[in-house]
Amino acid sequence: MGDQGLTPPIWLLPEPPERGWGLGRVDIVNAAVRLADHGGAEALTMRAVAKELGASTPMSLYRYVHSKDGLVDLMLDLANAEVRTPEVPGEDWRGELTAVAVDTWAMTKRHPWYARLVHQRPPAGPNASRRTEFVLATFDRLGQDLASALGYARLLDGYVTGQALQWAEERAMWQRNAFVDVVDVQRQARAWFGDVPSEDGPYPLLVRVLESFLAERHDAAGETGADSAVGADGAVGADGAGSDAEPDASSRAVGVGSPGARPGADEAGAGRGAEVDREVAGAGRAVEPGRRGSGQQGVGQDDTGRQDTERPGSGRPGSGQAAEAHAAADARKVAAAAAEDAQFELGLECLLDGIAARLR
C-alpha cells in the first residue's frame, strides 16, 4: 500500500513523538476508523483524516503514523482489540473458538473496511497476535503439531474473513443502489424478474427460490410471511442485507494495542443472546434514522445518505406514517442481521464439525 513499496509493520518503527497541540496517535487512528466506517476503505486518505482532525496539513500526521501503511496497521489492530479471547484455552475448545469467531464476525460488520484491508498488511499487531496465539494454543493443547495448528487457524480465519468480505461488498452494493432493506431488493427483483420462468426450464430449484423471494411478506415487526422459504436477509443475490443494526463499537475507549479478554465462551454466548433479544424487542428504536457504523449521526439523512424529509416527531404532515415506516424498516434490518448471523454460525458449525472429525 505504501508509496515507496512495501513498508515494515509500524510496530518495528520508532515510537511517535509526544503529543503536540492536542494531536496524538490514538486521535489519528480513531479519526481514520470513523472515516472508514462511514465511507469505506476508499474514503481513507491522509488528507481526509487531517481534515477530520482539523489538522493544518496531512504531513503533520506522518510524525505519528509514519505512512498510510502505518495508519492501516494501527486501524486493523484497534479493530482486533474488540475481539475477546480467554487468557488460556480451556476444556470447551469448540465453544471458545466459536465465541472468538463470532466476535470477529461482529467486529467485521462494525468495520466493513477490515476484510478489505486485513490481507494487505502483515498481521503483526499485538491484538492480532493475541488472537492468533490463542487459536494456535487451542490446537496445540489438542495435540496438534505446529503446522497442523497453523492450518486450522488459517482455515478458521479464512472462513470469517471471506464471509466478512462478501457481506461488506454486498453492503456497498446496497448503498450504491440506495437500498434501505429487503423490500427495496424485492421491488427491484420484481422489475427485473416479474415474469418468473417455468419450473420446467433448466433451473427449477432456482425458479422456486425466486418465486418464494418475490412472494415474501414483511410485517411491521420485521418478520417474514409464514409461506416464505427465504430468510429475512433476502437470499436471492442480497443475503448480505447491508444492515447497520450491529451495535456501534468504533467510539469505545480502546487504546491502540490494548488487548481484550474474554472470561469464557458460555458467558459471551449468553450476553450476545441477550443483546439480540434487546435489539429485536426494541426494533422500532434500535437503529435511529441517520445512525452510521462510525457512531456519528447524520443530520437529516438516513443510513443510505438520502434526505429524510419526514422525520419521526417532526410535526410535519405525515410524520406519524413516516415514524411507522422507519420503525418497520428498522425492524426488518434487525431481522436481516439476525438471519445473517444465523447463516454465519451455521457455516462455522459445519467447519468445526469437519475439524473435530479430523481430530478424532
Detailed description of the structure:
The chain has 360 residues and is mainly α. The chain has helices spanning 25-39, 46-53, 59-65, 68-80, 93-110, 114-117, 126-141, 146-176, 182-193, 204-215, 265-281, 283-286, 319-359. It has 13 helices and no strands. It is globular. The longest helix is centred in the last third of the chain and has 41 residues, at 319-359. The model is unreliable at 226-315 (pLDDT under 50).
What attributes characterize this protein structure?
55% helix, 13 helices, globular, mainly alpha
> So what's the overall shape?
globular
Low-confidence stretches: 226-315
Q: What are the secondary-structure elements, in order, as H or E?
A: HHHHHHHHHHHHH
Distance between the termini: 43 Å
Mean pLDDT: 77
As a whole number of angstroms, the C-alpha radius of gyration is 22 Å
Short characterization:
With 360 residues, the protein is mostly helical. It has helices at residues 25-39, 46-53, 59-65, 68-80, 93-110, 114-117, 126-141, 146-176, 182-193, 204-215, 265-281, 283-286, 319-359.
List the SSEs and their pairings.
Elements: H1 25-39, H2 46-53, H3 59-65, H4 68-80, H5 93-110, H6 114-117, H7 126-141, H8 146-176, H9 182-193, H10 204-215, H11 265-281, H12 283-286, H13 319-359
Helix pairs in contact: 1-2, 1-4, 4-7, 5-8, 5-11, 5-13, 7-8, 8-13
